[in-house]
Design brief:
This protein is an all-alpha fold and 278 residues long. It folds into two domains: 1-44; 59-273, MetI-like fold (Orthogonal Bundle). It contains 13 helices and no strands. It has helices at residues 2-44, 59-67, 70-101, 107-116, 122-135, 143-146, 153-164, 168-176, 181-192, 194-209, 213-218, 227-231, 243-273. Helix 1 runs antiparallel to helix 13 (243-273).
Length: 278
Amino acid sequence: MSTELTARRRARLQPLGTAAKYVLLIVAAALTLGPVIWTVIASLTPKDAATGATEFGFSAYADVFTKVDFWLLVWNSVLVTGLVAGGQMLSAAMAGYVFARYEFRGKNLTFGVILATMMVPMQVTIVPVFMLIRGMGLADTLLALIIPALPTAFGTFLMRQYFMGMPTELGEAAEIDGAGPWRVFFSVYLPLSTPGLAIVGILAFNYHWNEFFRPLIMTISEQNFTLPLGLVTLQGNLGTGSVSTVLAGVVLSMIPALIVFIFGQRPLREGLTAGSGK
């Protein structure tokens, strides 16, 4: 009898639980997408400077291309972000492979120091990094944004975990067939680490595409500005620019990141769930 009452009670509470889940999902979606939707709507409804009336149209988007060299900003961001993402994928894969497959003196200490760098804020290291860049003669260049960002502590840790989960028999079989260390890495283990590389690449792209602090410190000339830094000039002197024009630039800057996420969500999902069934 008690079992029947428990089953009936669960049957009555199940719709309430389902409704509560939907309410939470709707609230979370509204909090996440609300600012994005408002940005798009505000960019499409600019105010007339003379009358103050709002009108629907794409005039704010046209203003973006007339007030800043938008394509140059996009090119700088694509160049910097693409090279950083590719460089981080390669450096993380090579460093993670070494820490996972080779034994050498001070291995654990070195790996611990690498992980400890994740605890250090960028604001602490930006001054010595800038001094090194200036000493190399790379100040106010795109290389000043690319070279310091190539190493990645998180990527090294992530790829090390991936390589440690791969069977050692694969490398041993390749060595028996006459493959050297580089051939084993590039032909055997690197292709199998694609999910991990996808995570490193996508996260690096999203972070450095939207990065503002380092370009602000490292670059002075407008021809070396990246997209987030260049869009600040749309505000005008003392923020007197059109809000709709600024938001139109923000919407345009979101498109490449959205494209990367759409095409990269499958490998990203596979990388995040890899090993969960072990």
